[in-house]
Amino acid sequence: MARTDRLMRLMDLLRRLPAPVTATRLAEETGVSRRQLYRDIATLRAGGALIDGEAGLGYTLTEDPALPPQSFSRLEIEALRLAVDALGRIGDPDLNSAAHDALARIIATLPERQSRQALHAVMRSFDTGPERAPPRIDLSVIRSACWDEMELEIDYIDLKGAPTRRPIWPLGLSYSQHTLMLLAYCRLRMDFRVFHVNRIETLRSTGNSFRPHRVVLVREYAATRKAHPVRA
Amino acid sequence: MARTDRLMRLMDLLRRLPAPVTATRLAEETGVSRRQLYRDIATLRAGGALIDGEAGLGYTLTEDPALPPQSFSRLEIEALRLAVDALGRIGDPDLNSAAHDALARIIATLPERQSRQALHAVMRSFDTGPERAPPRIDLSVIRSACWDEMELEIDYIDLKGAPTRRPIWPLGLSYSQHTLMLLAYCRLRMDFRVFHVNRIETLRSTGNSFRPHRVVLVREYAATRKAHPVRA
DNA sequence: CCCCCACTGACAGAAAGAGGCAGCATGGCC
DNA sequence: GGCCATGCTGCCTCTTTCTGTCAGTGGGGG
């Protein structure tokens, strides 16, 4: 990795030395011929660095002022934008606004140049399908239970219309375009079940943690549903 | 910089794919022989990456905690995850892998506790609708033209089946679940048009920039399509 | 025991890197 | 205008590195 290393040092030199710096000087510092230095500069430019070279003067690096905590490619930015857009069709309002907030924060940390590029993305997805009825119960309770690995007790109307009360270990919400479902381990049936959220009448936390069982739960679920692998 | 680039992709893959990942898989993904993959892993390790390799299982990446922290709420992380998932149903492969890479990088920079929480999100969206046929032409050319505000010349089969050749100013791709469309200003018709990407026979850049006209273009488009406002 | 897999060494061909030289274009200075 | 310093490019060569193939070792799990 001698080359990559040298390129790093070259960037450091451009930052450290007072601009403009001549190619000769940089070539000496990096221990390379002038010809090669021109090639290295070209490489850095290809990588996105803004290096201004002026005949008779030297090189000037214009650094991105708020250097990004993480850099994303243009394609990645557009992909995230579109993804958040697509989410709008299946997510609930909480989720949607969270996604937009997060994306806005990501874009805000980008350097000005990339930020402008993000604005250029005019693309969006249409397909405003049928609106899904908003869930009657508070999704945030379910989410918290999933995150904190806490047992829930629910009153549920099963597909036959019969009401049951059962303790469950919630694993995660499953969003589909038409129904919102809760994947959980049902302690009443001693097996994995998928509950329609809209059929949950009431729910409350029992205060019991199922953390010790979670790992084996996920593993079992993955084993039984290899066709639908659990994203880890 | 093919090598450095490949190493970057390798890191992304290690972040994105569920651990442990076998060398064979990584070799395929990076388009390199197994022997070379072992060498690449060695390079990353020499560079400080913590990659655990276990015989019979595969590789597991344990992220470097010395990364700039950028905090997101739990809900935001889940929202982004789901958004990227939802994108899988409408985006093309390039876009999808970009979204996954970006998300993996975001999660990688989270503090360990949040990172674990992100893994807890088992939720995903189903609704595997009908697969859209992959576009015959290279989308990256279109994307580049949109970003760089460069004119394109396309051979297009219009809805009546008549072939036309026209110069256009591409504004952005529009993803919908069933068709992929290109929004552009058509210089032949002197108006905005939405082209079905699958009806574009050939395309090439004319080398002309339409940057000076872009701002007014977007403004006009917004004015004429108030019902479908252009995301700025 | 077997299979899968991480890992290492050796070797040869392929690819990239790097230096040297010549030449062009541009901006500043006398 | 003449001169010089400097950025930039093309071409040729040599060297270095990279990479695939082949072979072999050892660990883990069924």
Automatic annotation (TrEMBL), chains A, B:
It holds the Pfam family WYL. SUPFAM superfamilies: Winged helix' DNA-binding domain. InterPro entries: CBASS_pafABC_assoc_protein, HTH_11, WH-like_DNA-bd_sf, WH_DNA-bd_sf, WYL_dom. Residues 6-59 form the Helix-turn-helix type domain. Residues 139-204 form the WYL domain. It comes from the Bacteria. This is YafY family transcriptional regulator. It comes from Paracoccus methylarcula. The lineage of its organism: Bacteria, Pseudomonadati, Pseudomonadota, Alphaproteobacteria, Rhodobacterales.
